[in-house]
Amino acid sequence: MTEKVAVALLFGGRSSEHSISCATAAGVLAAIDREKYDVIPVGITPEGAFTLQPDDATRFALNADDLPRVEDNGTRVRWPEVAGSRELTVTRPDGSTQSLGEVDIVFPILHGPWGEDGTIQGMLELVGLPYVGSGVLASALGMDKHFTKTVLRQAGIPVAPWTTVTAFEWRAAPDDVRSAATQLGLPAFVKPARAGSSVGVSKVKDWSELDAAIETAFAEDDRILIESSVAGREVEIAVLGGRPGEPARASVAGEIVVSGRDFYDFAAKYLDAPGIDLVCPADLTEAELAQMRDLGVRAFDAIGGEGLSRVDFFLTADGFVVNEINTMPGFTPISMFPRCWQESGLSYPDLIDELIQVALARA
């Protein structure tokens, strides 16, 4: 009998997307092939403690009335103290310590700062543990909308016009910020540079709303973007990195149809708020899908992506414009990333398996 692969599933975290990470963990725990994988669920509390959590998908299922979270149960998971060791240990509340065995791969399904932004990836690099997904640089680039746009524009990939504002600039010269924003026209979007799931995002339809939108974004980050609104269909595509020597590949596309909301906000994404329809596969011509796939892979390669990413576009009258790239996209069974691959012939359990196997091959 083949020995099972030990996977440390890392979820939760300190960001405002903590509950979404827990919901992603629920999906993976329920679907991962238990004939091939042993799972060690490591939950990070909102305060940053690494804890050993129950291997129970129902514990972390998304509930709009009671969002899931990692509770501090008093356990503390310890990472290897020296590179070369892959053994995890856990200290119990009574002070006793036991081995959790050696880990073959870490699956860090963390969203937002202190997880998706290269910080966890750097820690895993330091202790010598292989992991699923992009490395330090690509994770940091994908998390930061300003630098994503800068890199993509340099690679010749169309992005929406924007201006970036620091908290210092806003406090020191608010009129200059307002003047720069007006050059972008209405409506405009104000976003934290480093946040996801539309947390802290506002649509400004009148300049009287700008100051409040800026303050909302600064509550999430000390650097924000003000972007021109792009008129077009909102379409997304899922990208999977290849094994060493193989190219990345892209799925069919999905579309977000906004009918009764200003934009695809947090409530619509995760709390089943009305006014949004997710259509997959999107109604595109063969030429449009081919171009979208090409741009998605080019964006993935431009930031040095590995493992997986979801690339979000606007399809305008003049062609595709990249909105952003997510190096650890929402990964619940109904999220757009796995749904796009399901429509491309790769089931949710098989997608999890593919991500782990690609990471093991890279390691």
TrEMBL record:
Sequence positions that bind Mg(2+) 1: D312, E324
Gene Ontology biological-process annotations: cell wall organization; peptidoglycan biosynthetic process; regulation of cell shape
SUPFAM superfamilies: Glutathione synthetase ATP-binding domain-like, PreATP-grasp domain
Record-listed Mg(2+) 2 binding positions: E324, N326
Cofactor(s) listed: Mn(2+); Mg(2+)
Enzyme kind, highest EC tier: ligase
Catalytic activity: 2 D-alanine + ATP = D-alanyl-D-alanine + ADP + phosphate + H(+)
Active site per database record: E17, S197, S335
Keywords recorded for this protein, A-Z: ATP-binding, Cell shape, Cell wall biogenesis/degradation, Cytoplasm, Ligase, Magnesium, Manganese, Metal-binding, Nucleotide-binding, Peptidoglycan synthesis
PROSITE patterns: ATP_GRASP, DALA_DALA_LIGASE_1, DALA_DALA_LIGASE_2
Localization of this protein: Cytoplasm
Cited Pfam families: Dala_Dala_lig_C, Dala_Dala_lig_N
GO annotation, cellular component aspect: cytosol
Molecular function in Gene Ontology: ATP binding; D-alanine-D-alanine ligase activity; metal ion binding
Cofactor note: Binds 2 magnesium or manganese ions per subunit.
Family per similarity comment: Belongs to the D-alanine--D-alanine ligase family.
PANTHER family reported for this sequence: D-ALANINE--D-ALANINE LIGASE, D-ALANINE--D-ALANINE LIGASE A
Function according to Swiss-Prot or TrEMBL: Cell wall formation.
Name of this protein: D-alanine--D-alanine ligase
Source organism: Leifsonia sp. NPDC080035
